[in-house]
Amino acid sequence: MKENIVVKFCNVKKYFGATIALDGVDLDIYTNEVHAIVGSNGAGKTTLMKILAGEYLPNEGHLYYLNEEITGMTPLEIQNRGIQVVHQVLNIVESMSIMENILLACPPTRGGVLNWKEGRTKVHEVLDFIGMDFDIEKTAGSLSISEQQFVILARAIINNPKVLILDEPTSRISYEETEKLFDLIRRMKSLGTTTVYISHRIEEIYQVCDMISVFRDGKRIDTRATEDLPKDELVTLMLGKKLDVFFPKIEVDIGEPVLRVKNLCYKNVVNDLSFSVNKGEIISIVGAVGSGKTEVINAIFGIISPDSGEILIENEDIFANHSPYQAIKHGIALIPEDREMQGMIGDYPVKNNLTVINLKHILNNHLLNARKEDKLAQSLNDLLSVTPNDINYLIRALSGGNQQKVVIGKWLADQYKLYLLDEVTAGVDIGAKSEIYNILGDLAKGGAGVLLATGDLEEAIGISDRILILFKGKLVKEVDPKITSKDNILFYIMGGEKIA
Amino acid sequence: MTDQLHVEISNKNIGKTNMMSQMIRFIILILVVLLLFAFLIPNFNYIRVPNLNNILTDAVIPAIFGFAMGIIIAGSGFDLSLGHIASMVASIVAYLMSRGLDMHPVLAIIIGLTVAALVGSISGFIVSRMGISSFIVTLGMQFLVIGARQLITRGQSVYINNEGFKWLARRPLGLSNLVFILIIVAVLCFLLMEKSAFGRKIHFVGANIEASRFSGIDVHKITFSIFVLGAILAAFGGILFAARAGAVQINSVDFRLLDAITIAVFSSVLFGRFRTIGIILVAILISMIATGLSMLGIQTEWIEFVKGFILLSSIVMSKFNHEDKMIKKILVNHQKLQKEI
Amino acid sequence: MPKSLSKFFQAYGMPFGLLALIVLMQLIFSQVPFFSALNLRNILLETVSISLTALGLSFIMMSGEGDLSFAGMFSLLTVIFADVSNLYNNFFISFITVMLIAVAVNLMIALLVTKFNYSSFIVSIAFMFMANGIEKALHQQTTLINNPSIRSFATIEFGLPIVIWLMILVYAVSYFVINKTKYGFSLRIVGENKDAAIEAGIDHKFIKISAYLIAGVLLALATTIEATRVGAIYEQGKFYMLPVFAACFLGSSMFVPGRINVAGTLVGALFMGSLEKFLNMINVESYIVSLTQGFVLLFSVGLVAFKRRKKINQIKL
Fold it and tell me: Which domain holds residue C60?
C-alpha cells in the first residue's frame, strides 16, 4: 500500500436482497485530503461510508486503514482507530449536558467512577478549536439545531481522528456557520486529518474539497482534483447523460391573488412576513435552514398556529381556528417535507394512500366502496405513470420518486386552489423530478397557485415566476428568476441585505 | 434502472412474505386440527351439538371484548381498564334494576353504557390531549374505576331478579340469544371499522399519526373516540356477562382483559389490523381450547395460563407475519440508501 | 426568576411539596399520630417491598423499556417462597429459588424485547397473565410461612429492622451506579436516545438485558421480604401495580425533572406508602384509597407530560 494512502477500498460490493448498492468499488483516499463523495440518490455514497464506519458488512471486497485490514470490524473498533462519522441525523441526548454529549463515547473515568472534572479542559479545548462558545453545563436540549450540529461535530473530533466523515453536514447550519465549518476542516487538514465530505451542494464542494469522487449506480465513475473538474462536467458525470430539457417552459396567464399572507409572525422563526401568490403562478420560497420556509408552509396549511397575522384565501381570512381539515376545505393542498413520516402511510398499499383524503369520493350510501376506490386509485396511478403500476403495491416498496408521485397524486383527484410543496423533489431521482415539474406546470395552467419551498436554487430559478428569499424569517427580497443570477440570490439568502 | 431493481426485490419478497404468512396460517390450522383430535379422543362429547353450542356461546362475550380492544389497538392505543369498566357498569346496571329502584332493564343498560362512554372519554381526553402513554393513563384509570365500583357495591354482590334482563342470555330458539346479539354487534363493528370513512381513519391514525394529520384527519377526535368505543363495547360485554350469570360478584375477576388482549392481538397477527371475522374466529378458537382443556380435567386457572401463553406466542408470531414489516426490514436498508444522500 | 433558582425549584419543588402535603394532612387530622417514631418506622417497613420493586422498574424504564410482569410475578414469587420455605425450612434455598425464577423470567422478557424488538409492555403483560394463572392454580388464599426463624428475617433489628437498612443500602448503591459509573451513564443514554447510544459504541441490547436482570434480583429481594414479613397474600401484586408505577412517575418529576431517577423513585415510594398509611389510619373506606392512588398516578404523569408538550403517545405492536 502506498505510503500516503489512509483509506483504501478494494472491490467492495454490497447488496441488499436484489438491490446492488455498491458494485465493486475501488477507492483510495490519501492523507491530508478533503475528499468529496458526490452522486445522486442510490449512487451508494452513504452505504460506502457506513461500511467504512463498521455499520455495514460488505458482501465482497476489503477495506484498509493505514496498513491494517479493517473489513468487518465493529463500529467501536473503527472509532478506536481514529475514524469518526458525523451522520446526517443528529443524535443528541437532550437531558444531558453539552459536556456529557461531547464525551458521550469516552466519558472520563478514574477507577471505574465517572470524573467529569477531568473532561472539562478537553471539552473547552475542542470548542475553542471549533470556534463555538457554550456553557458546557447547559443541557443539550436547550440548544438550537445548528448549535447541536456543532456539538456532534465536537464529539467527533475530540479525540483527534485521523479520518473524519461528514455526511451532509451543512443541512442544518447557516451560511456563516458553514464558513466556520470549512475553516475547521482546513485547520484539521493542516493537523493531519483527512476529511471525507458527502454532499450534493456543488458550491460547498468546490469551496473546500481537494478531490472529488463521483459515484453513480453503485460504481465509482471517476476521481479528480477539484481544480481539474469543471462544474458542468461534474454534473454530466453524476447524471451519466446530459439532460437538456430539465425545467419545462410554461406560459400561463397570471390571475388574481389566491393566497395573501399579511404580517405573519410565528415565535421567532417567522417575522412579519407578507407576500401573495396569484392564480397560475409558481412561486418559490428559498432560504437557508432556519429561515422559516417550512413554518410558513405549515402555517398556511394549519399544521402550526402562528402568533399573529392574516392568511387570506381568495379574500377570506382563515387565520382563526385553522387546521389541516379547514385548509383542505378551503382548497389548499400540502405535500409535506418528510415523506416517510408525514407524507405517506408506509405500511399501506398505494391505493389507500391515494384515497386517504378522497374518502368522500369512494362512498356509496355512506359506506366505502371497494370498486370505486380501485377505480379512483388506478386513474391517479395512470395519470402519474407510477412504476410499477400496481395500486395494491405497498407504498414503501416504491422508489423515492414514485412514492412522491403517489403523495402528490392524492391531491389531483380534486381541483385545489393552492398547492403547497415542501422540498418536493428531495430524495427524488432526476427522471421523476422532471415529471413532477411537469405536474406543477399543469397545475398552474389549470389556474391554481403553486407555492414551493425549496433549498434547491436551480429548481427555484428553473420553474418559478417569482422567488421569495427568506432570511431569519423575514422576506428580504423578491426576485424575478429571469433577470437575477444565482449568485445574487445566494447573496440575499446569506443575509446580503445587511452587508449591502 | 433503480426502479427495475425495486420491482425485482419487491416481487421476490412479496412472494416470500406471502408464503410466510400462508405458512403461519397453515401451521395454525394444523395445530387446531390436532387439538380437536386431542380433545375428541378422550371424550367424544366434545363434538356433540350441545357442547358445540356451549363453545359458541362461551365465545360471545370474549369476542365482544375482542372488538373493544381491537378498535383501540387499531388506533395504536391500549386500555388496561376495560375489564374493570365492564365490572363497574355491570354493577351499576344490576344495582339500578334492584334494591328498590327496579329500573327497566333497557333504561338501566343505556345508563350503564353512558357511564362507560364517560369513563372512556376521560381516558381518551387525557391520551389525545396530554400526550401521556395510554398504558399509564388506563393503568391509573383502572384504579379510579375500581374505586368507583367499590363505592357503588359497598363490597356486596348484587343478585339480579329482572327476568327481562336475564332473557338476553336465554335460549328460546335453541341457540343462545347471546349468539344473535354477537351477530348484531359484529355487523355494527364491521360496518364501522371496515366500511366507514371513520373506521378507515382509525386505521390510518394507528398506522401513521403524523401523515394522518397532514391529510386533514382530526387525530385528536379519532384517538379520543377509540377509547369511548372500546369502553362502551367492553361495558356491553360486562352487561351480557351479568345477564348470563344472574348476578354481579364482588370479586372483579379480570380474565376479561386477558381475553380481550389475546383475541385482539392474535386476530391482528392472523388477519391484519382489524378484521371482524378474524376476531370472531379467534374467539371461537380460544373458546374451543378452553372448553376442550376443561373437559380433559384441567383446572380453570391453568387455562388462564394457557391463554397467556397463546398471547405470548401470537406476539412472537407477529414478527414473522407482518408482511409489510417484513418488506420494510428487507427494504429499509435500500430505502436508507435512497433517503440518506 | 434567576436561572439557578428556577432549576432548584424544578428539582426540589416536588419533594418539598409532597412533604408539605403530608404535614397538611397531619394538621387536618390531628388526632392521628402520623409523625411518631413508631409510625414512621412502620411506614418504612411496609414500603420496603414497593420501593425495591419500583427501583427495579426504574432500571428498566431508565433503559427505555417497560414492564408489567411484576404485577403477576410479585405474588407468584411470594407464594413460591412460602411454599419452598414450608417444604424445606431453609431460608437460603427459598431465596435462591425465588431469585433464579425472577431472573430467568426477566431474562426471557429481555431477550424477546431486545432480540426481536417486541413492545416490552405487551410481552410483559403476557407474562403477567401467565404468572397470575400459575398463582391461581397453586393457591387462592394467603399462605403463611410456618418457620418462625425464616419469618424473623423481616424483623431482625439493628436500631431499625435490617430490611430497612438493606433498602437504604440498595438504593445508595443504585444511585451511585446510575450516576457515577460508566455503566449508569450508558444506561441513561440508551434509555433516552438509542441511536446516540449506538453511535457512541454502547451495546444497547446488553444494557437493556442487564436492566431486566437487575430488576429481577430486586424483585426477588422484595418478594422475599414481603413473604417473610406478611406472608404470600393472594394477588397482592396487582394491588402494588399502581403504587410502583406511581412511585417511578412521581420520582420523575423531581431531582432530574422529566426523567425517571433513583432518588425520585425512593421519595415517590415513600410518599405512596405514607399516603396509604395515612388513609388507613383515618379509616377511610377502601374505595377512597383506590381513587386517591389513581389520582396520584394521573397527576404525576400529567406533570411530566405537561413539560413534554402534548404529542399523542401511541402504542405500537
Answer: 34-238
Question: Model confidence over C128-183: pLDDT tens digits?
Answer: 999 988 988 887 777 787 777 777 777 777 778 888 999 999 999 999 999 999 99
Q: Which domain holds residue A209?
A: 5-239
DSSP 8-state symbol, B175: B
Q: What ipTM goes with this model?
A: 0.84
Same domain, yes or no: A411 and A486: yes
Instruction: Judge: B311–C125 Cβ closer than 8 Å, yes or no.
Output: yes
B-chain CB neighbours of C126 within 8 Å are: 308-309, 311-312, 315
C-alpha pair distances (Å), B121 with each of A176, B222, B228, C143? 51, 12, 5, 41
Q: Is B272 on the interface with C (CB under 8 A)?
A: no
Pairing of strands A367-368, A363-364: antiparallel
Do C3 and A139 meet the contact criterion of CB atoms below 8 Å apart? no
Name residues 153-192 of chain B within 8 A of A (Cβ): 191
The three three-digit cell numbers of residue B170, written as one number: 336465554
Give the separation between CA C258 and CA C247, rounded to whole angstroms.
Answer: 14
DSSP secondary structure code for residue C153 in this structure: G
For residue range A86-127, list pLDDT tens digits in order.
987 788 998 899 999 999 988 998 887 898 888 898 899 999
Examine the pLDDT at A19 and tell me if it is beyond 70. Answer: no
Q: Is the pTM of this model over 0.95?
A: no
| B 203-262 near A (Cβ less than 8 A) | 204, 207-208, 210-218
The verdict on residue B43 lying in a domain is no
What's the Cα-to-Cα distance from B13 to each of B19, B51, B325, rounded to whole Å? 9, 44, 11
Q: Are A344 and A408 within 8 A, CB to CB?
A: no
Rounded CA-CA distance B238/B90 in Å is 5
Asked if C2 is an interface residue toward chain A (Cβ–Cβ < 8 A), one would say no
Say whether both A373 and A491 belong to one domain. yes
Q: Which residues of chain B have pLDDT under 50?
A: 1-17, 322-341
- If asked whether residues A352 and A319 sit together in one domain, one would say yes
**A343 and chain B in contact, CB less than 8 A:** yes
Question: What CATH number should be reported for the domain holding residue B169?
Answer: 1.10.3470
Q: What would the grid cell of residue C84 be?
A: 419452598
CA dist., res. C176 & res. A401, Å (int): 52
The rounded distance, in Å, linking the Cα atoms of A500 and B263 is: 70
**Confidence band of A271 (pLDDT split at 50, 70, 90):** confident
CB under 8 Å to A290, separation ≥6 — which residues? A144, A145, A146, A172, A174, A269, A472
pLDDT in tens, A277-310: 999 999 999 886 667 889 999 999 999 988 989 8
CA A307 to chain centre: 27
A475 occurs within a structural domain: yes
Residues of chain C with pLDDT under 70: 1-4, 305-311, 316-317
> What's the burial of C234, exposed, middle or buried (CB within 10 Å: 0-12/13-18/19+)?
middle
Q: Please, which residues bridge with residue A20 across strands?
A: A15
Q: Test B331 with A18 for CB contact under 8 angstroms.
A: no
Number of domain units in chain A: 2
Touching A: which chains, 3+ CB pairs < 8 A?
A: B, C
Number of domains, chain B:
1
> Helix (H, G, I), strand (E, B), or coil: what is residue B225?
helix
A105 and A186 housed in the same domain: yes
pLDDT tens digits for range A410-425? 999 999 999 999 989 8
- Given an 8 Å threshold on Cβ–Cβ distance, is C293 in contact with B143? yes
| Contact of A34 with A195, CB cutoff 8 Å | yes
Q: What whole-number distance in Å separates Cα of residue A351 and Cα of residue A375?
A: 9
| CA–CA gap between residue A175 and residue A457 (Å, rounded) | 14
Which residue, among A171, A275, A173, A221, has the nearest Cα to A45 in the 3D structure? A221
Asked whether the beta carbons of residue A342 and residue B218 sit closer than 8 angstroms, the reply is no
Residue B247 has phi, psi (to 5 degrees) of -160, 165
